């Protein structure tokens, strides 16, 4: 008998696929992930006792651990925040350097404190600042880089355990006394303008969040704010500054000038009015604090 004539018998498995069954399984998995998530997209936050206006300081792009950071200003600013009444802080990303992307040896060498100590610092600092913290956002340094390398971010987890944490663009209804302010936050919005650093926030409110009246971001290290009327709606777009004042990357790609300045906004508790100030110092002087 020829080998070709020998029949082959086996219990070869035949695949079974039922798209309805799989969809039900994935729907259940999605529900479990949503229940386990600590981050969010929408939030409602109430500030103060309703008897005073409040001030919100958007703080971002500290880049702690980098050699070019203005640590003296960082320390004095933290002490000022802790001692100022009716002041709250929103963390808008890049709080630590986390040079783990390996895009440049020079960038890694300029990181004078390793990522492990940056995490320890951040945890210690956040615990002291916690009574002042209202929210935090994703960023492209620790959060996005950790996720790219390991699929998980310790920094994001720490922030989410202590604040309302937006893992992407997030909208927050902030209640102060009788007033509710519609705000939108992100480390970065799409769009840019060479002449108007506030453009990205303005663009986002126009096309993606028309019900929002205040947009806040960081990332570009260019402190500014713009108050304007968009049809019948008064809007405010704020961009935070940076404490990384001696960054080689910034000097090569942005500017030789980095301003360690952070605009703030006051939200009134009785009438619907938001007022920006160029810095916390200006707000304190104007309010006699």
CATH topology grouping:
Purple Acid Phosphatase, chain A, domain 2
Q: Which CATH-level-2 architecture?
A: 4-Layer Sandwich
On the 0-100 scale, what is the average pLDDT? Answer: 95
CATH superfamily: Metallo-dependent phosphatases
Task: Please identify the structural class as seen in this structure.
Answer: alpha/beta
Q: Stretches where pLDDT falls below 50 for ≥5 residues?
A: none
Taken as a percent bin, the fraction of beta residues is 15-25%
Q: How are helices and strands ordered from N to C? A: HEEHEHHEHHEEHEEEHEEH
The rough form would be described as globular
Distance between the termini: 103 Å
Number of helices: 9
| Secondary structure tally: strands | 11
Summarize the SSE layout with pairings.
Layout: H1 19-36, E1 40-47, E2 54-59, H2 71-83, E3 87-91, H3 105-109, H4 115-129, E4 133-137, H5 142-150, H6 154-162, E5 164-176, E6 179-185, H7 199-207, E7 214-217, E8 224-230, E9 233-239, H8 248-253, E10 264-267, E11 274-277, H9 280-286
Parallel strand pairs: 1-5, 2-3, 3-4, 4-5, 6-7, 7-9
Antiparallel strand pairs: 2-10, 5-6, 8-9, 10-11
Helix pairs in contact: 4-6
């Amino acid at each position: 008998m020829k080998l070709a004539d020998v029949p082959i018998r086996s219990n070869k498995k035949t695949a079974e696929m039922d798209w309805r069954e799989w969809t039900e399984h994935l729907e259940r998995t999605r529900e479990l992930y949503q229940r386990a998530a600590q981050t969010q997209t929408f939030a409602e936050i109430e500030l103060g006792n309703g008897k005073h206006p409040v001030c919100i300081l958007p703080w971002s792009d500290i880049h702690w651990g980098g050699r070019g950071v203005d640590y003296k200003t960082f320390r004095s600013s933290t002490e000022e925040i802790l001692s100022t009444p009716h002041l709250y802080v929103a963390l808008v990303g890049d709080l630590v350097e986390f040079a783990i992307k390996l895009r440049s040896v020079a960038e890694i060498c300029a990181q004078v404190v390793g990522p492990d100590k940056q995490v320890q610092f951040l945890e210690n600092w956040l615990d002291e600042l916690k009574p002042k913290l209202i929210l935090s956002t994703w960023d492209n340094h620790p959060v996005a880089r950790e996720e790219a390398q390991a699929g998980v971010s310790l920094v994001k987890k720490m922030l989410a355990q202590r604040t309302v944490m937006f893992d992407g663009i997030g909208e927050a209804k902030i209640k102060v006394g009788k007033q509710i302010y519609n705000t939108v936050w992100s480390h970065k919005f799409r769009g840019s303008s060479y002449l108007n650093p506030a453009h990205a926030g303005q663009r986002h409110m126009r096309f993606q969040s028309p019900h929002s009246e205040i947009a806040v971001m960081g990332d570009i290290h260019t402190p500014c704010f713009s108050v304007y009327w968009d049809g019948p709606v008064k809007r405010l777009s704020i961009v935070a500054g940076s404490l990384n004042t001696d960054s080689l990357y910034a000097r090569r790609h942005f500017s030789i000038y980095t301003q360690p300045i952070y605009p703030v906004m006051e939200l009134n508790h009785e009438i619907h009015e938001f007022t920006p100030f160029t810095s916390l110092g200006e707000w304190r002087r104007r309010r006699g604090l």
